[in-house]
Q: What sequence folds into this?
């Protein structure tokens, strides 16, 4: 797994974000959370095989997606945004 550097982020002019790669960052979020995603899948498969409820719900997944959408919107706008219900 390649690592590239972490990004220092600060406010730039006109709300733009500026950053610089220094060290030990991952190329993508898929690389960064690879092991966690594998563990999630294993856990979910185990729940199916044992007929038990999963540790997280679809609502938990929806909340995570809403947080990512809001974070991306905030980055694009250069200001905080309110999470939508």
A:
């Amino acid at each position: 797994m390649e690592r590239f550097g972490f990004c220092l982020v600060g406010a730039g002019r006109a709300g733009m974000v500026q950053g610089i790669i220094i060290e030990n960052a991952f190329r993508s979020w898929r690389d960064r959370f690879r092991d966690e995603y594998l563990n999630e899948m294993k856990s979910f498969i185990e729940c199916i095989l044992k007929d038990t409820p999963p540790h997280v719900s679809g609502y938990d997944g929806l909340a995570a997606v809403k947080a990512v959408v809001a974070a991306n919107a905030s980055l694009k706008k250069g200001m905080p945004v309110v999470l939508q219900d």
Summary: Residues 1-28 form one domain. Residues 58-77 form the longest helix (20 residues).
